[in-house]
Amino acid sequence: MENLKERTARGLFWGVLNSGATQVLNVVIGILLGRMIAPAEWAPIGMIAIFSAIAGNLQSSGFSTAIVNMKEPKDNDYNAVFWFNILASICIYLILFAVAPWIALFFEQPCLTDLSRFIFLAFLLSSFGISTNAYMTKNMMNREITIVNTCALVCSGIVAVTLAFNGYSYWSLAWQQVVNAAILVVGRFFFVPWRPTLSVDFSPIRHTFKFSMNILVTMVINTVNNNILTFIFGKLFTKTPQVVGNFFQAFKWNTMAYQLVSGSIEQVAQPVLVEVRGERLEVSDESNINEQETRVFRKMLRFTAFLAFPAMFGLSLVAYEFILSTIGPKWEACVPILRILCVGGAFMPFYSLYKNLIISQGRSDINMWLNISQIVLQMILIFLTYQYGIITVVGAYTLLNIVWLMVWQGYANKLIGVRLWDVCKDTIPFALISAALMAGIWVITQGITNVYLLLFVRILLAVLLYAAVMRLLKVKMMDDCIQFILKKKRS
After folding, report:
1. pLDDT one-digit tens code per residue, 414-433
2. Is the sign of the CA dihedral 475, 476, 480, 486 positive or negative?
3. Confidence check: pLDDT of 409 > 90
4. Rounded to an integer, what distance in angstroms lies between the CA atom of residue 354 and that of residue 404?
């Protein structure tokens, strides 16, 4: 039987593969759709993204996270969450269906009435797969998660591209979301042995209500945080929807890039940290277990920094040639927005890690209040800077997100004793090396004028030089990754 270290390594391997496959497919699909759909036509999807995302939060109500946080969840726990999600989703969908005309009126976009009613079907369908997703996450079925996600992306992407090619504009994006949700549900049921029953007992919902409500509030706050700029720009720039489209496009590429890292961490962080916490409850020597928690957390920090900084600083480096050579010159206005977002995006995967640490300690209340405080500060910043233009707002938003990590670190120190100095030692060298390499590559490639050649050369140099520096400095994280990949090949 695999020990914790082996299961963590296997989980990270499949997590990286899943995130990598997901983002590669998203890139391919995004390029095709970006070329076929004009910036202004992306605006309606961006305007209502916050509503469907919040609806998705409400349907799970945090109970799926509560299941993952249990040491040994029973079939009845999954069954209760399954039926609760479906009932909640039906109620929420009916409410959103009724308010769709007011959403269209708010944004002065009549098309949003029918469009939003259709897109909201995606979260209704998703409610059937929340319990099975929690089962797969709890049992670290990351290989199966990779297969399901890949199939859903390929099929929904084909549908979207086909519809866009035939002139269906933003409706192709809507169909993509609905088809993706449906295939995820079917795929999860195919791999998960658990099945719902008609014998419904909602007592697990009552027992985890407080914890789950804290998670719910936090999820909603995070959703508002992730969509607030698109939402506000959608209202402020009603007469110039291309501005909303440009921001939505830049935000999408930035999110896809950093989720390559955070998605890998998300799939293993909470289950592993919960298991370590469980060991602490079973032994009397708590100091040794705290040390183990800190050691596991710091290794995840190093892995996150090892991937996040070169990936995001690299995307910022190639933003201009990437946008022009993929989705075309009509999106050139989103380049400066993307560059700023990428700097902040390098730090976003650390939020996932800190969040999972705090939740694994049973402190969903801390997680909730930290997120509430952050969104309040962001709203204040947006109010103070929006009159200076979109670049200023994005810059202020990015800076706050970076600085706010220090607050999360303070609570991590209180909970498991991980020190700021140790965190800096684990992460800052990767940031400095990545920044220096990207700056050097930018200077030495200035003479290349062909955007396709420039994109290729910069990516090639970034990968080769970063790998060479890691080997030259004998970075253990690099050696661990190589050894694990070789081991997988031999097996």
Report:
1. 888 888 999 999 999 999 99
2. positive
3. yes
4. 12
